[in-house]
Structures are given as structure tokens and as C-alpha cells.
Amino acid sequence: METLCVLTCLLITAGLSKGVNIIQRIPVLFAQPGVRTETLHCEHDDNTYYTMLWYRQTAGAMDLLAYSGSENSATIEPPFKDSKYTMNRPETLKSSLEIKNLQPNDSAVYFCAASITH
Hints:
- This protein is 0% helix and 53% strand.
- It contains no helices and 10 strands.
- The strands form 2 sheets. It has a 6-stranded mixed beta sheet, with no helix packed on it. Strands 2-4-9-8 form a 4-stranded antiparallel beta sheet, with no helix packed on it.
- The protein is an all-beta fold.
- The protein has strands at residues 4-12, 22-25, 28-31, 38-44, 51-58, 61-68, 75-76, 85-91, 94-99, 108-115.
- The protein is globular.
- The chain has one domain (4-115): Immunoglobulins (Immunoglobulin-like), CATH 2.60.40.
């Protein structure tokens, strides 16, 4: 059986000199393809960074997967809209990305980002 590798990274999209800290638990995830669901978690420490984003980087492409401008709201971007991804934003400083039914083509680098602007 193949092993799926999901590498999660941190990305700050605005205010680099301000020193916002982004913490992402489980930086590297190895999972078996199939029915399994995995959730990536991210948080930051500055409540003026209202927008949180998730990016997915594969060979040759980096795509905006999802974003949230406030608590309890999230938008999944096309072509991911009707797919296996769910973004949750329970608090201003926290976000998660759920990936359902992991498959080998889900192997990617997933970036969590925070931004002052949308």
C-alpha cells in the first residue's frame, strides 16, 4: 500500500517585520490512502490578522485552497469547492483544514497563512 505524505508549512502573507508567530502542529504527516480523514491545525498570535488562508503546493503549482475573513466563516476556492477539503475557523487566531478520503494525489505541501488584509 502506498504512503501519502502531507507536508505542512507556515506562511505569513503580510507584515513580516511585525513578527507575527504562526504555529502549525504536526509539520509532517504520513498517512495511508483510503477512507482516512486528517486535519491540519494552525494558529497565530496577533488578532489584527483577520484573514487566514490555506494554500496547497504540488509540483509546478501553488493554489489558494481556502480562506476565512472572520470567525465561523470560510470559503473553499474552485476547483476545490465541491471536493474533499473543509476549512474551519472557530476563533480569530485558529484555523484547521480537513482533508477527507486521503489519496496519493493529495500529497502536497500545505501552507497556513495569516494576513491583515483580505
